[in-house]
Write a structure and sequence with these properties.
The protein has 253 residues and is mainly α. It has one domain (2-43, 87-246). It is built from ten helices and no strands.
């Protein structure tokens, strides 16, 4: 799996070179700006909501009052760290919901970019078929909904674990890995659809190459650490990198 993670990470560098060489900026900048605006507004309100949820839980459960009454610096420290971990988990949950909404909205451009990338590699044009485009869009939406359901189940379980002292401190790591896998899965599936894999076959194939999905999703998330510029480029770079990492594989195997 580690080898596949490295391949997926290196594919982002190849994606940047690919975009520059074939001048694909117009297919990246415009949807990227829309994504950036939606992301910035959503994260602002998500952050306030997560803070309010933590304060509500602390007051309603009486935990905050109990910690303050104990006058223990250790308990105070544990309570603060626990609150931070819970906030991170909530933000990942919120971002997950936003991410899948964007995957549904952006499915036409993602399907196009994946197909465009492979057509350039092979040196041939795929004929535009409106019926096929609709099929690709519906496939992308179905995969996004399926992944969002399973990921939410896992994240809610992790959210519960995050309330447990000490154990809860490592839950953001597991939550991030799950986030990375399911986002990368959605990006890789565009290639699976083009190679006529059924949803079940795509799930099996990508399940055997989990590193590709995790690596793709990991760089996607890391790009968000670069304000504005990273937000603009992250979605399109992810789908092109996924296509480049999938292309050398014998997808039908």
């Amino acid at each position: 799996m580690l080898k596949d993670i490295v391949i997926a990470i290196q594919a982002y560098r190849q994606a940047h070179q690919f975009i520059r060489k074939h001048n694909l900026w117009k297919w990246i900048i415009i949807p990227g700006l829309v994504y950036m605006l939606l992301f910035a507004v959503s994260m602002y309100f998500f952050g306030k909501s997560a803070t309010n949820v933590i304060e509500f839980l602390g007051v309603k459960t009486g935990l905050r009052g109990w910690v303050e009454s104990m006058r223990s610096s250790i308990l105070g420290f544990l309570f603060t760290i626990g609150g931070m971990m819970l906030w991170l988990i909530l933000m990942l949950l919120y971002f997950s919901l936003f991410k899948y909404l964007w995957l549904i909205i952006g499915s036409p451009i993602f399907a196009f970019l994946s197909e465009k990338t492979e057509s350039i590699i092979e040196g041939k044009d795929y004929p535009f078929v409106f019926k096929q485009l609709i099929k690709d869009i519906l496939r992308g939406i179905a995969i996004a909904l399926r992944n969002s359901l399973w990921q939410t189940v896992y994240l809610v379980s992790i959210l519960i674990l995050s309330l447990i002292p000490l154990i809860g401190w490592v839950t953001p790591v597991f939550a991030l890995l799950i986030e990375c896998y399911y986002y990368g899965f959605s990006m890789l599936d565009y290639s699976g659809e083009r190679h006529k894999l059924t949803v079940a076959e795509s799930i099996h194939f990508i399940g055997n190459r989990k590193g590709l999905a995790i690596g793709n999703g990991l760089i996607f998330y890391l790009m968000h650490l670069v304000p504005f510029l990273g937000w603009v480029f992250a979605p399109a770079y992810a789908v092109i990198a996924a296509t480049l990492s999938m292309y050398p594989l014998k997808v039908k195997e």
